[in-house]
Specification:
alpha/beta, 8-stranded mixed sheet, 14 strands, globular
């Protein structure tokens, strides 16, 4: 029997998200989350979707990622889905930063591990955790293909005019300073799903994808290939996010260091963790911000207006980059669920062919859907993202080709 199952692992600094899929029909067999790794109050939540049973939760100390993955393996085994199953074809790992080198999913070996490690300086919060998950999973199943699927890979098709910063070339190359982009698995999945929604092949459409979650990014996808994206060397650049500033004059950093007497680490924390929506109004949950706006909170309204202003700028910029746009697709937590964000983002852009139908925009659902009026020149869509399915699909396809 040919193995058809893929375990997808997303290892964070103190968490592991996982999903087990059967690639015969892309069905979910189980999923779960281990969080607060390294604390006494670690928590594991496991849901056996194949059996239809309820979720199981466990709270207690989980010392490290090795212990976390062993706990995941034990939970899967209880449902007959253990890591020792002959039906498991591969383990697919989300790796945040692949630099210029990794342009597609890659079977992991020592050379790949070394390159991911060399990229730690440009992804200090993510790549170390990704490496830990890979090494632990490899120790548990050394005979199984381990595949890295990189967040940056989809964006490696950007032309140099979009990828390069206007700084000294030798300095940039020496320190790998360029725009890499992130959320690539989401942008890849959503751009293809949007084309399918329009009844066309990806190569036939130009799509602006707006991935709006606590982290947020935009991309311009021309005939299935990314030609620009809002995040850069790190996930800090671009849109206003939950806790990140997005685009900021670089001289702000010099000013805060010289005048504010802040250290580099303090400025890093400010821009990554105390800025964006939470810095502007004290909340990074769009539902809470909208509730406060409805109650007349001016600070929440200003935060929302800044968020939308930046979003509109990117829609307009990517419209110019693409020249012709077939669809704008909203995805991720805010993009999929916050109708006021979608309405405000395209308000006043009728001359570009963009509009939403208020009734369609108010509908909630789990399937891709159009929210633009009938006959609109540019389709506006809500397309739920599925990064785990994208990772599993890429992993399984690579393993089949390799075998």
């Amino acid at each position: 029997m040919t193995p058809t199952r893929v375990l997808v692992l997303n290892s964070g600094s103190s968490s592991v998200k996982y999903q087990l899929l059967d690639m015969r029909d892309s069905s979910r067999l189980a999923n779960g989350l281990v969080e607060r790794i390294g604390e006494q109050s670690s928590r594991l939540k496991h849901t056996p979707l194949a059996t239809g049973g309820g979720s199981r939760e466990w709270t207690g100390p989980i010392a490290d990622h090795d212990a976390a993955l062993k706990a995941v393996a034990e939970e899967l085994a209880k449902d007959g889905l253990g890591l020792d199953s002959p039906e498991l074809a591969a383990i697919g790992h989300r790796v945040v930063h692949g630099g210029k080198h990794f342009t597609e999913p890659t079977v992991i070996d020592d050379a790949v591990l070394a390159e991911i490690e060399r990229l730690i300086p440009v992804a200090p919060l993510h790549n170390p955790a990704n490496l830990t998950g890979i090494r632990t999973a490899t120790a548990l199943r050394p005979d199984l293909p381990q595949v890295a699927v990189f967040d940056t890979a989809f964006h490696t098709t950007m032309p140099e005019a979009a990828a390069r910063y206007a700084i000294d070339v030798e300095t940039a190359d020496a320190h790998r300073v360029r725009r890499y982009g992130f959320h690539g698995t989401s942008h890849a999945y959503v751009s293809r799903a949007t084309a399918k929604l329009l009844g066309k092949a990806p190569e036939e459409v130009n799509v602006i994808v707006l991935h709006l979650g606590n982290g947020a990014s935009a991309s311009a996808v021309e005939k299935g290939r990314c030609v620009d994206t809002s995040m850069g060397l790190t996930p800090l650049e671009g849109l206003v996010m939950g806790t990140r500033s997005g685009d900021t004059d670089p001289a702000v950093i010099f000013h805060l260091a010289r005048v504010g007497e802040m250290s580099i680490d303090e400025i890093d924390t400010l821009l990554n963790k105390r800025s964006g929506l939470i810095g502007l109004c004290g909340d990074n949950d769009m539902r809470e911000i909208r509730r406060r706006i409805d109650e007349g909170d001016e600070r929440a309204k200003l935060a929302f207006d800044i968020y939308i202003h930046r979003l509109k700028k990117y829609i307009g910029a990517y419209y110019a980059v693409l020249g012709h746009v077939d669809a704008v697709a909203f995805t991720a937590g805010v993009g999929e669920n916050a109708a006021p964000v979608r309405q405000a983002a395209v308000a006043g852009l009728g001359s570009l062919g963009l509009a939403v139908d208020d009734e369609l925009n108010a509908v909630r659902g789990d399937e891709p859907r159009l929210i633009s009026p009938a006959g609109a020149r540019v389709a506006v869509a809500v397309v739920p993202t599925d990064e785990e399915l994208e990772i599993a699909t890429q992993t399984y396809a690579l393993v089949k080709r390799t075998n």
